[in-house]
Amino acid sequence: MDRLHQYLTLTTDIGTILRYIGAGTCIPPLVVALIYQEFDMLLPMASVPVVLICLGTVLIRLPATDREPRLSMSLFSVAAIWLICALVGALPFVFGADMPYIDGFFEAMSGWTDTGMTMAPPDVDALSHTLIFWRTLMEWFGGVSELWRSRSPS
């Protein structure tokens, strides 16, 4: 039961971060889809912020405890956020490019963690402009988090 209370100390923070990420991924990909008239990409791109914001709202509404989280639980929350973002970030690749989910997950995890590896077809230009922008946006978010982490005081 103690482990459950430890997880509940983090749900509000994880939920808030997921909602912020959902808000940050809401407008830019949809604008790119409209600019390039890739209307078939609107629904796949809208799925990401909707799922992140809904999941974040559910986590925020879970009963929180007033305990201070342990360091190990805080590290777990960072890994959980990356995992959740990659699981959800794969949706546009699956629905928009007909990639197998595991390839879309690899693509999204590569973007969020900023490794740069890709499972995209040999000709990356075969992807839609919106998916190329989505990949770049994930790498930017991943890079910003790395920059922020490296500059934060120890």
Give a quick rundown of the structure:
With 154 residues, this protein is an all-alpha fold. It is built from eight helices and no strands.
Description:
This protein has helices at 2-8, 11-24, 27-35, 42-61, 71-89, 91-97, 101-112, 129-151. The protein has 154 residues and is mostly helical. The two termini are 32 Å apart. The model has no long low-confidence stretch (mean pLDDT 87).
Q: What's the helix and strand layout?
A:
Layout: H1 2-8, H2 11-24, H3 27-35, H4 42-61, H5 71-89, H6 91-97, H7 101-112, H8 129-151
Helix pairs in contact: 2-4, 2-5, 3-8, 4-5, 4-6, 5-7, 6-7, 7-8
Number of continuous helical runs: 8
Give the biggest sheet.
none
Number of strands: 0
Structural class: mainly alpha
From the N-terminal CA to the C-terminal CA, the straight-line distance is 32 Å
Helix content: over 70%
Instruction: Tell me the strand percentage band.
Output: under 5%
Report the uncertain regions: none
Task: Please tell me how large the radius of gyration is.
Answer: 17 Å
Average pLDDT: 87
Spatial shape: elongated
